[in-house]
Write the structure tokens for this entry.
Amino acid sequence: MPIAGLGWELHIIRQSVQQRQGRKRTVGKYQIYHNGISQKNLEGTAVEAKGPGDNKVAGNGRRIEAGKYPLATQAGSHYVTIGYLISNDSDQTPKPGLELRQTGNRREILVHPGHGFLASIGCLNLTSALASGNTNIPFGDSRDRVMAAITDLQTFAGSAFPHHYGQPIDNAWVVIDGEP
């Protein structure tokens, strides 16, 4: 599914599956767009759970289906869009995150920082390139990339950006392509 070229879009193109000691993760590339124009330095690697994509069964531990999902501010105890901690400790919460909406029977599907092999039960972790399944997601890099995405979205939306948790973000989407 190509981007629409309208609004703020985080585009993820799934490319491959990596494995380590029986665990699997889906790896692709991401790029952020403003009205179809790619934004310099807002690109990298996206990491998700194993496939195939499934939005029908809640809590299934798989990646979500390829598609287009509207975004909202996250209102959780571990991840939030507003008021997150800036810490190098992956155990400290709340960490930065954005919530995907209209994910079928799946709930709390987020864009949030990863660490280790994968920190996701259907969510999306942003990071730098991962050479193989033996390469860990560096938490600080992943956190910085999620914070950069949130900051960019806030700047793009301007005064229309919600000031409360759990609110839809107008004209903001995650677009996911591919089912490797």
Remarks:
- The radius of gyration is 15 Å.
- The mean pLDDT is 96.
- The beta strands are 8-20, 23-34, 37-48, 67-73, 79-80, 95-96, 98-100, 110-111, 125-127, 168-177.
- The CA atoms of residues 105 and 167 lie 19 Å apart.
